[in-house]
Amino acid sequence: MAFDFSNLVLTIIETVTVGDPIPPAQLVSNNKKISNNFPTGKITMTIKSSLSRRSLLKSAGAAALAAPLYSKSALASSGEINILMWSDYLPPEFIAGFEASTGIKINYTGIGSNEEIINKMKATKGQGFDIVSPTNNRSLQWGPLELLQPFDMNKVNIDAVNPAMAKIGTDAWNFADSGVHWLPHIWGTEGIAYRTDKWLPEGDAPSYGDVWSEANAGKTMGRAHSMMLGAGLYMEASGAMDAGSVWSAYENEENMRKVWGQITDWCVERKSRIKLIWNDADSQKNGLLNEGVIVGQTWDGPALALKSAGEPVHYQAPVEGAMAWVDGMSMPVGAKNTDQIYAFIDYAFGKEAAGVAIDSHGYNSPVLGADGFSGDNYKKNFAEAYPGSSLANLNPWPAEAPWYADVRTEFVNKFKSS
């Protein structure tokens, strides 16, 4: 069963009045009106769900009866674990804390794209790593590969994380009804980052179109496929393409080719205005600090990490809406260090460890209460990144079927080679 993450977010979040943000781990809690006070203000968020309170409580009760009983007694206290994960997700402080707490050594291989993870696992037939970190919307690509194995949920403290994000694993990643193959780890967005000392948006918020504008020519950057999607959203907003076209491309290949043909032609005409095409977190940071980039389409984490370090960099959701995603943890079929895997998950789902991590890498955690162990910088950055109705306007990245990824690669290659 495929899980529609876009429906989940867009039906649950109804209205937002922003001074400071709701703690991110609670963003998609069901049927609650939540108020929180932070150092510089207050937010009131009204949450709407398509489920009634009665049906939610009923289903929660049934889930509690059917859920496995989490046990921490069998967790490992020595050995090593091999992790293939996004290059900035395990800060030195997190690794040091885990190794000191458990006695388990982390062998960490950083990556910059979902394609890297899939290709490595296909090449090794699921061997060589104990944990990999696919994004939530890639389940349709992973299922047919049969390269992942389900988790033993008796060994996972799933109650520690946001239930809506945990539900992604039980719905979209329960391949052939064999169990949960994915657990939430980090969530974030892709929007617009810019140098505050060299450029400011014309209005209250930047636009995806700023990356392609003639005024910024030679001083912008983005990741090819998502920068092209952002261009599509800008084309819709500016009337250059019919509203809803970008999302209709996920429905079938005919729509995809029509929509992406339009997007690609538009982007090819403006390619000379792009300074840098990035491929990971470090290249985003380097572009903003050392390559003359003044505005770019980036992930939230790298830009906010620079902002926290005192650099003149700001990240903000654009007027068209930031793209939202959840990266997870999955266990390849060839994983060898099983006990160490569950020890790592247990540590990652701890409030303090998760809070320390988000302070460093700038993304957000699904762990409930993690924000309580983050600093004031994190809370301030979150509020400034998602002002006004930004949270209600998030664009959850839709599930990508294998055919979609293949066709998109065709158009991306045409853009790159032009």
Q: Give the percentage of residues in beta strands.
A: 15-25%
Compute the number of strand runs. 15
Radius of gyration computed on alpha carbons: 21 Å
Structural class, by secondary structure, is alpha/beta
The N- and C-terminal alpha carbons lie at a distance of 39 Å
Report mean pLDDT, rounded to a whole number. 86
Specify the number of helices.
15
Q: Tell me, what's the shape? A: globular
Spans of at least 5 consecutive residues whose pLDDT stays below 50 are: 1-67
Oligomer: single chain
Q: Care to describe what's here?
A:
- With 418 residues, the protein is an alpha/beta fold.
- The protein is 39% helix and 18% strand.
- It has 15 helices and 15 strands.
- It has helices spanning 5-12, 53-66, 92-102, 114-124, 139-142, 163-172, 224-238, 245-248, 253-269, 281-290, 300-308, 338-348, 351-361, 376-385, 402-417; strands at 13-17, 33-38, 41-47, 80-86, 105-111, 131-132, 148-149, 183-195, 220-222, 274-277, 295-299, 313-316, 323-329, 331-332, 395-396.
- Strands 8, 9, 10, 11, 12, 13 and 15 form a 7-stranded mixed beta sheet that branches. Strands 1-3-2 form a 3-stranded antiparallel beta sheet. Strands 5-4-6 form a 3-stranded parallel beta sheet.
- Strand 4 (80-86), helix 3 and strand 5 form a beta-alpha-beta unit.
- Helix 7 crosses helix 9 and helix 11 (300-308) packs across helix 14 (376-385).
- The longest helix has 17 residues, at 253-269.
